[in-house]
Structures are given as C-alpha cells and as structure tokens.
Specification:
Blueprint (H helix, E strand, L loop, with lengths): L13 E2 H14 L3 H8 L28 H10 L4 E2 L1 H6 L2 H4 L4 H6 L2 E2 L3 E4 L4 E4 L2 H13 L6 E5 L5 H14 L13 H10 L11 H4 L2 E5 L3 H4 L3 H10 L3 E5 L9 E3 L4 H5 L4 E2 L3 E3 L6 H22 L7 H7 E2 L1 H10 L2 H8 L3 H13 L3 E5 L1 H4 L4 H14 L9 E4 L6 H6 L11 H8 L11 H10 L4 E5 L3 H4 L3 H4 L8 E6 L12 E6 L8 E2 L2 E2 L2 E4 L4 E5 L13 H12 L8 H6 L1 H11 L7 H4 L6 E2 L16 E2 L20 E6 L4 E2 L2 E2 L15 E4 L1 H7 L6 E6 L8 E9 L6 E5 L24 E7 L12
Parallel strand pairs: 1-9, 2-3, 6-15, 7-8, 7-13, 8-11, 12-23, 13-14, 15-16, 16-17, 24-30, 27-29
Antiparallel strand pairs: 4-5, 4-17, 9-10, 18-19, 20-21, 21-22, 24-31, 25-26, 27-30, 28-29, 28-31
Helix pairs in contact: 1-2, 1-3, 7-26, 8-26, 8-28, 9-20, 14-17, 14-18, 14-20
The protein binds ligand MGD (2 copies) and molybdenum atom (MO).
Length: 772
C-alpha cells in the first residue's frame, strides 16, 4: 500500500457531479461507452429492463434516467465487451486463478461457453450443453436428493425461480437456501409472528403521505440510491427523517439530485436526516426500548392528567395482543441499561420519541444493520412494537419497510424458493404436477455450510451468486468444498466460488437480464418483485454476449429434463419456448397473488401483490398484531465475557461494489481511496490501544472454539464511529465470522457484530488456547 493516507474526508453531498463522473468512468472501463449509455435509457422503464442492482421500487412515471450511479455500474459490468473464452482457461489452471482477487476474476469479462472441470489438467474445458446436463443428472441420480443443495442468489426472475424450485422438489428436496438466508431472513421470521406477513407493508404512495421516517442500519446512498429521490421529495414537504446508524452515511446526511439541472449548477443540496443518532453497533434494541419506554410513560402520565393520549389506545385494543406485558417490560427496563447498550443518551432518545409521538404517520425503514445480528429477529420485532404503539401499520404514510437486497430476492421467496416447507404451496404443486413433494425441512445457508463440513451435502448447485465468498468462515469452509461430489455454477461472470469446486464440476454461462432473450415464440419478458411487493416486467435490450449462452429458464429446464422422469403434466420445452406459459403456471399456483399475471405485469409501475397486514388483516395464529417482549437487550449474549480490548466489528459494503463484486477499491462517500484493507475505528480506541494512524495490524476473532480466525495486512484509521466499534469491508473480512455466530432464530450470519481484537503487525499471534 502507498504511504499516502487513503482516507480523504468526503464533504460533498451524495449524488451530484461525483455520480456523473463515476458513471462515465465505468462505461469507459467496460468498453461500452456509446451503446452502454443508450441501454441505460431503458433501465427501470415500463418498456425496459429492471435494474440488476438493488430491489428498490420502480415508479410508474419514471425520471428520464431512472437509474443511479450504482445501477449504471451494475449494467456496464454485465454488458461489458470483455469475454472469457476457452483460451482463457487454456492459459490458467484453477489453482493459478486462486491467487487472483475477486476484482481480477470478474474483470476478465463475461463467461460465454459451458465448461467442465478437467481433473488431469486442472482447467475448465469446453463441453456441450447436452453433455453438461447429462453429466449433472448422472451425479444427482447417484445420491440421495437431500444430499444436494440448490442455492439461489436473488437476481433470477420469477419465471426462473419458479422452475428452479420445481426442479428441486420434483427431484426430491427442499434444500433451497437463498441469499436472503444471509440478509432479510430475520425479517421473514420476525414479521409473520408480529403482523402476519413475511414482507413489508410500505408502498411508494406512502412516501407521499408520511410525516416521519425512521431509518435503521441502511446505507441508502450506496445501496438503494434511487430512494434518495423519495427522501428528497419528502424532506421538501417537511417530513422528519430520523436515522440510527453508528456511521454518518453520506446519502442520509445530504443529497444533490444528479438529474436536476438546477441542483447540478448551484450548490443546492437537501439535508436528508433531521436527527442522526450514532448508536453503538448492536444497540438498536436498547435504543428502540428507550423510545418505547418514553412513549408508554408519557401515555401513563396523559391518562393520569386527563390530557390527550400518546398511544393509539383504540388501535391497541382492537388490533393487538400482548401490550400489557410489553408495556410492563419497557417500564421495568432501566435507563442505565438503555444508555449503556445503545450509547445514546436519554435526551437523544427523547428527541426521537418526541417526533415519533408528534407524527400522524410514521414509516420505519431498515437494512442489514438490523438483521445481521445475533438479535436480528428481535431487532425487527422491536421495530414492529414501536410502530404498533401508535397504530403505524395499515394506514397511509405508515408501515414497516425492510429494504431488500438483490433485485428479485423477495420474489424468489414468493414463488417457492425456500427451505421451509410450510412456506411453499406443496399441495397445489402436487395437484398441478402429479408428484409427491418432499415435506421435510430443507437446509438454510448456514445449515448447508454445516452439511458440507459434516459430509451430509454431496452436491451444490448455484443459480447465480458467489456463495463460497458470501458465507462466513472461509478458512474452515474453503477446503471442504473439494470433498463434494458435484458442484454446478450457473453464472455470468467468473468468481472465486467457481474455483472452489467439487470432484465433478460444471460452469454454465447464462444470459443476463439486460440481454435480449430469444426463444421459439420470440423475444421474452421476465418479471421481478421489488421491496414493496410490486411486480414489474423486464425486457432485455443488449445483444447477448455470445450465441452460445442459454437463458436461466433454459438451463434449469435442461437439467430437469435430463434428471427427472417424463411427466405428462410438466412440459419444460413449452415453458422455455414461451415464458408467458410459466407466468400462467405461477398464476395457477398462487391465484390470490398473481391474478391476471400476464395482462398486468407490464403496466407502468407494475402491480402490487396484496399484503394483508397493510389492510390491518393479521394473518397470525391469533388473528391479532402481536407485541413481542424481547428476552434480552444484550446483543453479545453468546460471547465470552471479554476485556476492554475487544471491539465489535461490522462488515459492510463500500460505494463501488455489488456484494462480492468489487468494481473499484474506492469507497467515495466514506472517503476511503485505493484500498479496502482498512479498519475504521474511534480515535480514542486507537490511542487507548496504542495504535498510530495508518498502522498495520492483525485482526483476530474472539471465539470459544479452536479455529484461529485472523487477517493480517490491515491498516487502522481514525473515523467517526462510536468507541468500541470498528468497521471493515465485506467480503474481505468474512473469514473472521464463525459459522456458528448467527441470528438466533433466522440463522442469518451476524456479520454486523463480530467480537475482535487487534494487535500490531509486529506482535506474534497468541497460542490458540489463550485466544479468549
Ligand atoms: N450498490 C449496491 N447496492 C446494493 C448492494 C451492493 O452491494 N451494492 N447490495 C444489495 C444487497 S444484497 C443488500 S442486502 C442491500 C444492503 O444494503 P445495507 O442494508 O445498507 O447493507 P450494508 O452495506 O451492509 O450496510 C449496513 C448499514 O448498517 C449500518 N450498521 C451496522 N451495524 C449497525 C447496527 O448495529 N445498528 C444500526 N442501526 N446500523 C448498523 C452500517 O453503518 C451501514 O450503514 O443492498 C443491496 N443494494
Ligand atoms: N460479511 C458479510 N457477509 C455478507 C454480507 C454482509 O453484509 N457482510 N451480506 C450478505 C448478503 S445481504 C447477501 S445478499 C449475500 C450475497 O451473496 P450472493 O448473492 O451469493 O453474491 P453476489 O456477490 O451477489 O453474486 C455475484 C455473482 O453472481 C453472478 N451473477 C450476476 N448476475 C447474474 C445473473 O443474472 N444470473 C446468474 N446466474 N448469475 C449472475 C456473477 O457470476 C457474480 O459473480 O452476501 C452475504 N454475505
Ligand atoms: Mo442481501
């Protein structure tokens, strides 16, 4: 690393000229400047394609350019004119490629030929599609279906996802983990218990009616930048935006609209957050408890004094259960505990609770800072408790809004990609397709990893994604993949997961969503569901990277035809010939959700799936919205009691990456340039622990097992983050997360609070027995 300080404070708003410069740069880097900018004009338009980056809602009346800097980067990355052909693998063995960084692997370009790993030469060699399908089928037929795992990453369309879950179930397994197991599964477990819906209740319309928004643990300017338009409009109406985040994220501080000529020419920018609370990592439950306690006590006083109630007593009486127990628990929680765990003062929480009480309609929005914790499920339930206190669910401008990750991750769950059999319409599938679906629980992401370690998993099929890198504990997991009998990766770009292969391995390149998808009946449309349960059509515009590519539905159908016995009720070829027939099948399977699917999905703005909780219909076992009492406010309850040198590490995305795909080493909004090997910590912690600015350190996980999880070559920098907290990048730090360190009920890896110690690079490691 150069001796220059890589941290240069970013003082500009999110968006603005910096965004325009970054878009132009990535188009040039991927050699697609001219046709790339033409293709971008179709992004997120009713007649165009749904962006492959985030899952934020797409409006019916889009802006001239309805994309953000990061969406443009994702497009350029996919339509790149760089390709990987058979020559590339002739030059590089997989062992050689293991020394390449993720950025170098993906930068090599699009995969264009189906490949099989050749054990003798340790290279991927070209194969035909039919040989690949037959080879995969042979391997799968030789094992028990419950020894195979069918992972999905969250980008594949509703059509592909429906076929994929059917393939797995007809073969005989519910082992259908997806990326939401590492992401919003805490939401999917928490909300059915509280409001009877696994997804959020907020739609785009609500942004126009809300008085107040609470943001928890989401880096909006980087990870859902198009939402800044809604936030900016809301701010112009005087809406309060109250943010809880250990870090001052640029997009939640201020924003200049790169699509507004006026704002680009003048220094105009909108202040986004009206209150910004930098709480301790894992301090959310305590902070929310503090606000709930105040609201309940203010309401107690109002009843005593005969002044207007603070809580919505009528809503609580008619719609909810568990209030008394919850109120008692909040009254009993002490301020000492709340302030210690959240590192926020009673006054600060009072200011937030005051705005909450003043507003007629409040929305809560949240991301990975809430879900990726040991208490991820309880965090979400506390958010729900806060909203229920004033009836802030099921009225205009109010509701809960989990900001989902991948562009169709919510939709994949909707059409049956789930390891939980109770969430899949097994009886309907049985009736429609005349087979006996498996009824046993399948494996989630963490369980699949454990299965690989234990030898219970023998085959892994990945529909997109970079599973082996996205998961925790690389040191433990990496060697285990070699013992698998079969690995199959369906992908657009080369990544490290493709190098960590089984004894038989296939790498199958597919069309991306931005490319024209021609089948027997002509050019195809697909569909995706966004974070607001709104379903949109998507049609590709770019010419395919190669004639050899198959679409994802065609690849799934190819494997299914080779693997499964003939079934007169299932015509895979007809589905591939015309995706409208897959949509008909989805409608038959979910008539309440997808009525008139084919005639509605291309309408501007898409169509909304009905969410009962948004209409105050509670699909919970008791038919009520439930207050849930947290069993503890202690995020780190599973950790050994540790000394003052232990810090809590969060692993997050930078501004120039999409998950494991790192476009450049810069994280502009946080002011980090040219490196990701940094750890950002409080100045006082650096002084207390004796580290100089920029010093090289080793970082090691504090855990109870014998695995020495550590990372060298990291540099510490002073940053505006609460004492005791430290930030590093995902996926570089994933090797530090123990597989067993996950949310209690949802099994989401707790990637936002890893107990760690640092030591100077020159000090040798302690023996394993003294790691604690
Ligand atoms: N450009 C781009 N867009 C993306 C992605 C991408 O990688 N790049 N990824 C997509 C995916 S799959 C997802 S899931 C989303 C992820 O979007 P985010 O949910 O924003 O995920 P992270 O980048 O991990 O950032 C988490 C945020 O939580 C904060 N945080 C950390 N710990 C805590 C805590 O204990 N409490 C609170 N209140 N805050 C905390 C961090 O400071 C950070 O601001 O974005 C999606 N969109
Ligand atoms: N430490 C830490 N770990 C985390 C997280 C964190 O915040 N911290 N976040 C977690 C979260 S929220 C998520 S969602 C996961 C993400 O985990 P994944 O979804 O598994 O990973 P991605 O990086 O999104 O996958 C990128 C790869 O997908 C392939 N791809 C891209 N487009 C397509 C396509 O259209 N079709 C197909 N078939 N393949 C395609 C490309 O080959 C690319 O290399 O990571 C999780 N891991
Ligand atoms: Mo995600």
């Amino acid at each position: 690393m150069s001796t220059d300080n890589p941290l240069k404070p970013y003082r500009n708003p999110a968006g603005g000229w910096g965004s325009v410069k970054a878009v132009a740069g990535i188009l040039i880097q991927e050699h697609v400047a001219l046709h790339g900018s033409a293709i971008l004009s179709h992004q997120n338009k009713p007649d165009g394609f749904a962006c492959v980056s985030c899952s934020w809602a797409k409006p019916a009346d889009p802006h001239l350019f309805e994309f953000c800097e990061n969406g443009a980067k994702a497009t350029a990355w996919e339509i790149t004119s760089k390709h990987i052909d058979a020559d590339f693998f002739a030059q590089h063995t997989l062992t050689d490629l293991e020394s390449w960084s993720g950025l170098e692997l993906e930068s090599a370009g699009r995969l264009i030929t189906p490949m099989r790993w050749d054990a003798v030469t340790d290279r991927y060699v070209p194969t035909t599609w039919q040989d690949a399908f037959d080879g995969i089928a042979n391997e799968l037929q030789a094992i028990d279906p419950n020894e195979a795992v069918f992972y999905a990453s969250g980008r594949a369309s509703l059509e592909t996802s429906y076929l994929y879950q059917l393939l797995a179930r007809m073969y005989g397994t519910n082992n259908l983990p997806d990326s939401s197991n590492m992401c919003h599964e805490s939401t999917s477990v928490a909300l059915p218990q509280t409001i009877g819906s696994p997804v959020g209740t907020v739609t785009l319309d609500d942004f126009e009616h809300t008085d107040c928004m609470f943001f928890f643990g989401h880096n909006t300017g980087t990870n859902a930048p198009r939402m800044l338009h809604q936030l900016q409009d809301a701010r112009k109406r005087g809406v309060q935006i109250i943010t809880f985040n250990p870090i001052k994220e640029r997009g939640l501080v201020s924003f200049a609209n790169p699509q507004s000529p006026l704002e680009m020419l003048t220094p105009a920018q909108t202040q986004i957050s009206t209150q910004y609370h930098q709480l301790r990592i894992g301090g959310d439950e305590a902070a929310i408890a503090g606000m709930c306690k105040l609201l309940i006590e203010w309401d107690d006083a109002a009843q005593r004094d005969g002044t207007p109630r603070v809580l919505d007593a009528a809503f609580i009486a008619e719609h909810t259960e568990g209030f008394d127990r919850f109120a008692a628990a909040m009254r009993a929680t002490t301020w000492a505990e709340i302030e210690r765990r959240s590192q926020l003062t009673r006054d600060a929480l009072g200011a937030a609770a005051t705005e909450y009480a003043r507003a007629k309609s409040v929305m809560v929005l949240y991301g990975m800072g809430i879900t990726q914790h040991r208490n991820g499920v309880q965090n979400v339930q506390m958010l729900s408790n806060l909203l229920l206190l004033r009836g802030n669910i099921g009225k205009p401008g109010a509701g809960i809004c989990p900001i989902r990750g991948h562009s169709n991750v919510q939709g994949q769950r909707t059409v049956g990609i789930t390891e939980k059999p109770e969430l899949a319409p097994l009886d309907t599938l049985k009736e429609l397709y005349g087979f006996e679906p498996p009824r046993n629980k399948g494996m989630s992401t963490v369980e699949a990893c454990q299965g690989v370690l234990d030898g219970k998993v023998k085959a892994f099929i990945g529909l997109g994604g970079n599973f082996q890198v996205a998961i925790p504990d690389h040191q433990v997991m990496d060697p285990a993949w070699r013992s698998l009998r079969l690995t199959v990766q369906i992908a657009t770009k080369l990544n490290r997961s493709h190098l960590l292969h089984g004894k038989v391995a296939y790498l199958l390149p597919c069309l991306g969503r931005i490319e024209v998808d021609r089948q027997a009946s002509g050019e195809q449309w697909v569909s995706v569901e966004d974070s607001t349960a709104c379903v949109h059509g998507s049609h590709g515009y770019a010419q395919p990277a190669s004639e050899l590519l198959l679409s994802e539905p065609a690849i799934v159908a190819g494997i299914a035809k080779a693997l499964l016995p003939d079934n007169p009720l299932v015509n895979w070829d007809a589905w591939v010939a015309d995706y409208a027939t897959i949509r008909d099948a989805i409608e038959q399977t979910y008539p309440d959700q997808f009525g008139d699917f084919n005639s509605r999905f291309r309408q501007p703005g898409g169509f909304h799936r009905p969410i009962p909780a948004a209409e105050r219909k509670w699909k919970t076992p008791n038919g009520k919205a439930n207050f849930v009492v947290p069993d503890t406010l202690d995020e780190d309850a599973d950790m050994p009691s540790v000394g003052p040198d232990v810090l809590s590490l969060m692993t997050t995305r930078g501004d120039s990456q999409f998950n494991t795909t790192v476009y450049t080493l810069d994280d502009r909004f946080r002011g980090v340039h040219g490196t990701r090997d940094v750890l950002l910590m409080h100045r006082d912690d650096m002084a207390r622990l004796g580290f100089a600015e920029g010093e090289e350190v080793h970082i090691a996980t504090v855990s109870t097992d014998e695995v020495g999880r550590e990372l060298g070559g990291m540099h510490v920098h002073a940053f505006d983050i609460p004492p005791g907290c430290i930030m590093g990048y995902y996926p570089e730090c994933n090797r530090l997360i123990p597989l067993s360190h996950h949310a209690k009920d949802s099994l989401v890896p707790a990637s936002k609070s890893i107990p760690v110690r640092l030591r100077p690079a020159s000090v040798p490691r302690r023996p394993a027995s003294t790691v604690i």
